[in-house]
Design a protein that fits this description.
Elements lengths: L7 E7 L3 H12 L5 E4 L15 E2 L6 H21 L10 E5 L2 H14 L7 E3 L1 H7 L10 E5 L3 E2 L2 H14 L3 E3 L4 E6 L4 E6 L3 E9 L5 H6 L8 E10 L11 E4 L4 E6 L2 E6 L25 H14 L8 E11 L6 E4 L6 E5 L5 H18 L21 H14 L22 H6 L2 E6 L2 E7 L18 H13 L1 E5 L4 E6 L3 H8 L11 E7 L5 E11 L2 E6 L4 H11 L7 E4 L4 E7 L3 H6 L16 E6 L2 E6 L8 E7 L3 H12 L4 E3 L2 H10 L35 H10 L4 E7 L11 E4 L2 E12 L4 E8 L10 E5 L2 E8 L14
Parallel strand pairs: 1-2, 1-11, 2-8, 4-13, 11-18, 21-31
Antiparallel strand pairs: 3-7, 4-6, 5-6, 9-10, 10-11, 12-15, 12-16, 13-14, 14-15, 17-18, 19-20, 21-27, 22-25, 22-26, 23-24, 24-25, 27-30, 28-29, 29-30, 32-35, 32-37, 33-34, 33-36, 34-35, 36-37
Helix pairs in contact: 1-5, 1-8, 2-5, 2-8, 11-16
The protein binds flavin-adenine dinucleotide (FAD).
Length: 810
């Protein structure tokens, strides 16, 4: 029976998997009934139908755990609400550790879960055996138990969401493939199908593994690639029981789930096999794929050891299905930076069922309100670089990312695949100096330098890693002499034209209408006062500005600024990131070093803090900007890319006389944490305001013309702050802070650590985190919990290192 398609809808959702149906359900809950969901075949026929059904809640970060927790809560009541069975069973879960580092990770996660009250119990080997009698516990050290975890039937859950959506007025049409996304060059206008064209205000791409290619047809970048994903269903073994918890053995890349009288063993093998790289068959529908038994074999061998009863059980079903994976194992959510009103929810990385409730909720809120309901940067589609849609890159990277779900989430863990994509002009020179590069958004960046005789290679642990002392030496050199950082990965934009100043000043909270050659540190705010970007603006000329931001926010910052400037304003925004490299010289000896290389006068009267001008250096003209992210006297040198090697060689040749030391990003992070310099994405996000973040000094309320977010800040000033960013230093020099650790005040958790690093000058781990208590912040009333143990910490609203900026302005 053919169904008459509407010719217009407020929202068209492409894809009837669990994600699309959840967004439809949540839009309906918000009162959006003019919603049309189009599915090319039948609901769940892509990846959803074969999900194993695990619904776990503890993820690697607070925000992702929140989404997963909401999902579990939703599924628990969905059957009662819709009348559609979901197969949901709250059986709890156990995750086991067979080495001390894994146990530390589990305990750290259990501490993190306390921040929002998810009960996670650290349990002993004996308790694991008691809760899971089939297990061989000989090598188990302990684990965690989450009583509210469970499993469900993916098809039934999706149907229940679809039913709930229909009840709210959503129209769902199956066997209707979207053949094109329609747009007017700037925003979406609808979709095309074989039956009809449909106008739409907003389009949401939830097409699972088909999303990348469909989006690419309209220039929208959704980097994902399907991989084979496996599980095996064993014949029944004695002792199986429907109430037994789901069990995860991360160190053996496997999970175990009771499944209708049988035992399912699923795999997260370290090297996955990409699938469908040449495209996906048009008729793919409820399909399995052949896979390779050899891929699963090592996991099964370990499974026989873990559950000895399996040694005598036959295999009832060997299953392999495709699922989308992304370069950083995080989903892609939100409005695309390339096309307005084109939303994305794809790349579920094998946890789409347990994520879909939360994903549907935040996507519906995002569509409804025009902005994300909370900080979702880690999964925001705007984090992706254009090159990440490259298929060779994706193929290589996703074969690693599948396994990362169950791998130990080491602090500072680096990808091993698809490396070397973006390299600074200095790359080879820095390798010769012993650089150990890490990867950030494709950029190879020196994280630390190995002294002669030491391999530039990570040895991971939760304690002090092998680079700790080398990085400490770099840190000290910057504080005492001078360090060289390669910061070429900075994002750099030029805004120029007669209206550039007016347009940019409306976006910046600080006043950028300054004299030519001045540098202004500023935030860009949204209408709610939240910080959308954290940049420096240098006035190059009356009508021309250089904007510098972090490498990770290149796409987001560019698109944010572009969208704030109407076409009627006469200015042009250009991304010039690749045109310039950046060499930073930082430390008390930086002036002497630079002065020895240039005829320009580098003294403070001639070159004060926050000023910028072109100087001669070697054969080049470079822009020297006196600014710092490490809290020392120093200059960032913006060098045309083709002059980078020559300039670097000049600096290094002279550097020996001043004790120049090469320093990496780990040292940079340690230095900036001591000075409490904020990092966008960690310490400041779109849900934190400059007042809460202690950045009020960079807000000019009284500037002519105002700025976006001003009214919200004024309101907040009037009502008083409900949270403040605080710097912490542990009393003990031993423990290490990373992120997400709970902050205690007395018997109450009052916040969590946003970023943590060891401060080598201050002599202990330093953390920055928001404390949700108004009033006075007493210095010594806080404790920070790490892996279940609380550590006393000193708190301060002023930077603990050089609070008067005396070192910067010398
Ligand atoms: C073996 C295996 C086990 C898994 N186990 C679990 C688990 O235990 N727990 C868990 O949380 N997750 C699990 N997953 C992952 C989970 O199944 C997926 O993350 C989830 O189903 C993805 O949902 P989706 O809606 O994004 O994609 P899909 O289910 O693939 O839905 C996308 C839909 O879009 C449709 N579509 C595509 N293009 C178009 C178009 N042009 N027009 C119209 N429609 C279109 C497709 O037909 C498809 O139905 C597992 C995955 C596999 C492979």
């Amino acid at each position: 029976m053919s169904i008459e398609l509407p010719r217009k809808a407020q929202v068209v959702i492409i894809g009837g998997g669990v994600v699309g149906c959840s967004i439809a359900y949540h839009l309906a809950k918000l009162g959006w009934s003019d919603v049309l969901l189009l599915e090319r075949k039948q609901l769940t026929s892509g990846t959803t139908w074969h999900a194993a059904g695990l619904i776990g809640q503890l993820r690697a970060s607070i925000n992702m755990t929140r989404l997963a927790r909401y999902t579990a809560e939703l599924y628990r009541q969905l059957e009662a609400e819709t009348g559609q069975a979901t197969g949901y069973r709250q059986c709890g879960s156990i995750s086991i550790a067979t080495n001390t580092e894994r146990f530390e990770e589990l305990k750290r996660n259990a501490s993190m879960a306390k921040v929002f009250g998810l009960p996670v119990n650290v349990i002993s080997r004996e308790e694991i055996k008691q809760r899971y009698p089939l297990i061989n516990d000989s090598d188990i050290l302990g684990g965690v138990h989450i009583p509210s975890d469970g499993y469900g039937n993916a098809v039934d859950i999706t149907q229940a969401l679809a039913k709930g959506a229909r009840n709210g007025g959503v129209q769902i049409v199956q066997d209707c493939k979207v053949t094109a996304i329609r747009h007017d060059g700037a925003k979406v206008t609808g979709v095309s199908t074989a039956q009809a064209d449909i106008e739409a205000d907003k389009v949401v791409i939830c097409g699972g593994m088909w999303s990348r290619d469909l989006a690419a047809t309209v220039g929208v970048n959704i980097p994902l690639q399907a991989c084979e994903h496996y599980y095996v269903l064993f014949e029944s073994v004695a002792g199986l029981d429907p109430t037994m918890p789901v069990m995860r053995d991360y160190d053996a890349c496997s999970y175990y789930k009771y499944d209708a009288g049988k035992l399912m063993v699923g795999a997260f093998e370290p090297h996955a096999r990409p699938w469908g790289v040449e495209g996906i068959a048009e008729d793919f529908c409820f399909d399995e794929i052949a896979g390779s038994f050899e891929q699963m074999e090592p996991v099964l061998e370990q499974a026989m050891q873990r559950i000895p009863a399996l040694q005598h059980a036959g295999i009832q079903k060997f299953f392999c299905g495709p699922e989308s994976f992304t370069p950083d194992v995080r989903y892609h959510l939100g409005e695309s930076p390339e096309l307005k009103n084109c939303f994305v929810a794809a790349g579920m990385n094998s946890i789409g069922l347990q994520s879909a409730g939360g994903v549907g909720k935040v996507m519906a809120d995002w569509i409804h309100d025009g902005h994300p309901p909370a900080d979702l940067w880690e999964v925001d589609v705007r984090r992706n670089m254009p090159f990440q849609g490259n298929r060779k890159y994706l193929r290589e990277r996703v074969s690693e990312t599948l396994g990362l779900l169950y791998a130990t989430h080491w602090p500072f863990r680096q990808y091993e695949s698809a490396r070397g994509a973006r390299q600074s002009a200095l790359h080879d020179r820095l390798v010769a100096r012993g650089a150990c590069h890490g990867e950030a958004f494709g950029w190879e960046r020196p994280n630390w330098y190995a002294p002669k005789g030491i391999a530039p290679r990570y040895e991971y642990s939760y304690g002090r890693q092998n680079w700790f002392e080398h990085s400490a030496a770099e840190h000290r050199a910057v504080r005492e002499t001078v360090g060289l950082f390669d910061q070429s990965s900075f994002a750099k934009f030029r805004l120029e034209g007669p209206d550039a100043c007016r347009a940019l000043n409306r976006v910046c909270a600080n006043d950028i209408d300054v004299a030519t050659g001045r540098i202004v540190y500023t935030q860009w705010l949204n209408e709610r006062g939240g910080i959308e970007a954290d940049v420096t603006v240098t006035r190059l000329a009356g009508d021309c500005f250089l904007i510098v931001g972090g490498a990770e926010t290149e796409v987001r910052d560019f698109s944010w600024l572009k969208r704030q400037i109407p076409v009627t304003e006469r200015c042009v925004l250009t991304n010039v990131s690749s045109a310039m490299g950046v060499i930073s010289l930082m430390g008390p000896g930086s002036r002497e070093l630079l002065q020895s290389l240039t005829p320009a006068d580098m003294s403070t009267p001639a070159f004060p803090f926050a000023s910028s001008r072109e100087i001669e250096l070697g054969y080049a003209l470079v822009r020297a900007s006196r600014i710092t992210y490490v809290g020392e006297l120093g200059w960032e040198l913006y060098v045309p890319t083709e002059f980078m090697l020559g300039v670097y060689d000049e600096i290094v040749a002279a550097g020996d006389r001043c004790g120049l030391v090469h320093a990496g990003y780990h040292a940079l992070n340690s230095l900036r944490m001591e000075k409490a310099y904020r990092h966008w994405g960690h310490d400041i996000t779109d849900e934190d305001t400059p007042l809460e973040a202690g950045l009020g000094f960079a807000v000019r309320f009284d500037k002519k013309g105002g700025f976006i977010g001003r009214d919200a800040l004024l309101r907040q000033q009037e009502q008083g702050l409900r949270k403040r960013l605080v710097q912490f230093k542990l009393h003990s020099p031993q423990p290490l802070l990373y992120r997400n650790e709970p902050i205690w005040r007395g018997d109450t958790i009052v916040g969590s650590i946003r970023s943590g690093m060891y401060g080598h000058t201050l002599g202990a781990a330093i953390g920055l985190g928001y404390v949700d208590v108004p009033g006075e912040i007493g210095a010594d009333e806080f404790e920070i919990e790490i892996a279940g143990t609380r550590h006393a910490a000193t708190a301060s609203l002023r930077p603990m290192f050089d609070p008067t900026n005396s070192r910067i302005k010398r």
